[in-house]
Amino acid sequence: MIKAVIFDLDGTLVDSEEVIVELFQRLFLEAGLTPPSPEAILKIKARGSAYIIASLLPEHLKGDAELERRLRERCAVISKSLLNKIKPMEGARETLEWLRKNNVKIGLVTNRGPSTNELLELIGFGRYFDVVITAYHSKNLKPHPEPILTALEKLGVDKSDAIYIGDSEVDYAAGEAVGIKTVLLNKEIKRLQDIRRWFDG
């Protein structure tokens, strides 16, 4: 019996691809660096801002800890300014409402940082979650299993009684590492509403 559903955020509950591209291109431009291509950004978008910044820096700047620190700080500021451009995915609100009405616990595990809770409040999703695990709640980020394991512990639910829903290979790898049933949007399901199949009967 499924007692809890844990969601990824970006690309699963919210449509943020264009905003993520704008964020990192603007960040690099402001720093006087050649902005990375949308393809390069989106390829690693699920890994969290620190990883993205370190990976996309030009070779001669890789490993510059002070530069990376400044870029991370500026990234947080720009990210906050772009939150109002992020919209819920189709069916997200209805799915969260349905889970709530059916007394299913709801968790969120994201590699997004401090902007997470503000974003959830902006789109009216904050009230749905029993637990929210962000980049600041876990020593390790997905694809490491720790964030999902932390969510399960806080929810008080065994992995065999939960589903993890994401949209990326990072999500799949994290779910596999935990041993939780992992469902990818646009692969196993086409719409978020389709998760109801695991509750039928």
Task: Write out key terms for the chains shown.
7 strands, 8 helices, two-stranded antiparallel ribbon, five-stranded parallel sheet, alpha/beta, globular, single chain, 201 residues, 2 domains
How would you describe this structure to a colleague?
- The protein has 201 residues and is an alpha/beta fold.
- Helix content is 41%, strand content 12%.
- The chain has a 5-stranded parallel β-sheet, sandwiched between helices.
- Helix 3 crosses helix 4 (65-81).
- It is globular, with a radius of gyration of 17 Å.
Short précis:
The chain has 201 residues and is α/β, with parallel strands linked by helices. 41% of the residues lie in helices and 12% in strands.
Task: State the CATH superfamily name of the largest domain.
Answer: HAD superfamily/HAD-like
CATH architecture of the largest domain: 3-Layer(aba) Sandwich
Q: What's the domain count?
A: 2
Q: Distance N terminus to C terminus?
A: 10 Å
Main sheet characteristics = 5 strands, parallel
Give the total of beta strands: 7
Gyration radius, rounded: 17 Å
Query: What is the succession of H and E elements?
Result: EEHHHHEHEHEHEHE
As a percent range, the share of helical residues equals 40-55%
Classified by CATH, the class of the largest domain is Alpha Beta
Number of helices: 8
CATH topology of the largest domain: Rossmann fold
